[in-house]
Amino acid sequence: MQEIHAKPLISRLSLVQNIFYHYIHGMKRLIIPIICMLLPLAGCHERKPLPSLDIADSLLVNAGDKSGALRIFLQIEEQLKSRQDPYGKGLLYERIGDIYYEQMNYVRAYHYFKQARENFQVSDSLREETEATLDMAAASYRQKDLERAMRLYSAALDLADEQDSEALAETALSNLASLYVKSHKKQIPQDLLQRIERSARKDTLFGNHTMIDVQLLKHRTDSARHYLKLAAAQDNDVLDKAELHYTAYRIEALSGNFRQATDHIHRYIYLTDSLTRSIMQFSAGVIEKEYYQERSAFAEYRMKHRIFWEIAVICGIFLLAGVAFYIVRQRLHLQRERNDHYLLLAEEARAEYQALTRQMEGRYDTEKRLKNLVASRFDIIDKLGKTYYERENTPSQQAAMFQEVRRIITDFSENNEMFQELEQMVNTCHDNAMQKLRQDFPAMKENDIRLLCYIFTGFSPQVISLFMKESVANIYARKSRLKSRIKTSGTPHTELFMSLFG
């Protein structure tokens, strides 16, 4: 376990520390929930320093409650997420990885060791990065991933050489020797083997373990057996003893002593099995008791329910596909309706634009016709003015003026082009009155239509009598008769016609 400098704590955590040291053995179950409750308070009290990892380690890990320690570490992790402290996160993940490693959960241990190394890389903590790399390699070795473990130990060796750290380099070299021993496919380079042999301290337990691997790599089984005896006399750790029995099995197998090799491998299996049971007891005691009873029924259970689950999965897939198809279909339908609505609006806008265009063209034609009518009326005035000017103060003036006026009246009464122009002027100025008159009264005589055109134009009965070559009284009578006929007809445009009678 790596040493970590203690940080100042707020008063609540100091109180918890004092309580724990007095009542650790009698009130452990009570204190752990109190610590878990106070940790969030510490994190939100004016950004006070986080609780020290050393205190959580000494209060819980040393007391033997690994699960309680893990809860404390996870709460600290929650508070560290809001802080830019990669070094602190690296230390935290190292501690969590250690707990999982001791529980033989090497997959989770590797995950946290990797996170620790990444945070140490961000904080430029080279030594801690090297230690995390060594831990990752150890977890990979326990997962039987020798290739990855060899790469990680080689990377840790490079980092140790960069720091000139003999202790870290010795650890990496010793583990590389063990990996080359267990890997039958790779041949260790001679320069690396010589360096491993030089780094091993002959008078230490760690050195004896290294020398065993070195002698095995050199195929010197007698020397390996010698160092094995030295290591066995010094080692009291159960896991190390199991590894020594496995190494002894390899030595005896290489020497041809298969009976002794069998004894050692049986002892190795017994120790590893006992170690696994003791580690898993605190978290899976009840499950272990029921495991063997359920194992015999598991195959039958699996066969019975396999078809059910397959059908359930297939039905679920079809259901999801159906829901997805329905949703997509509805969206396409809504999109189609939206597009149709937009197209309809576009058609309406285009129709309105065309109507406005036609209306503007009609107005333009109307203005053009009105200008032509005005110009023609000015031509009449121009002719009268010229006649008056040319014959001013002459005896023939009155006769000439009379003849000119007579010619104009004759044009209005006999010239069809002049009458059509007059009818067009009525249509232009009075909402197509003549056109509607012909539609509402198709049987009306042409002479009556001409009379109504003169009336709608606004000529007086006296002028109309000149145009029609009838008496004024007759014009009045015909006008009254036509007015009564239109009024009683009940046509759609009766009000328009009546308004033009004046």
From TrEMBL:
Protein keywords: Membrane, Transmembrane, Transmembrane helix
Transmembrane segment boundaries: 307-328
Name of the featured protein: Uncharacterized protein
Organism: Bacteroides clarus
Source lineage: Bacteria, Pseudomonadati, Bacteroidota, Bacteroidia, Bacteroidales
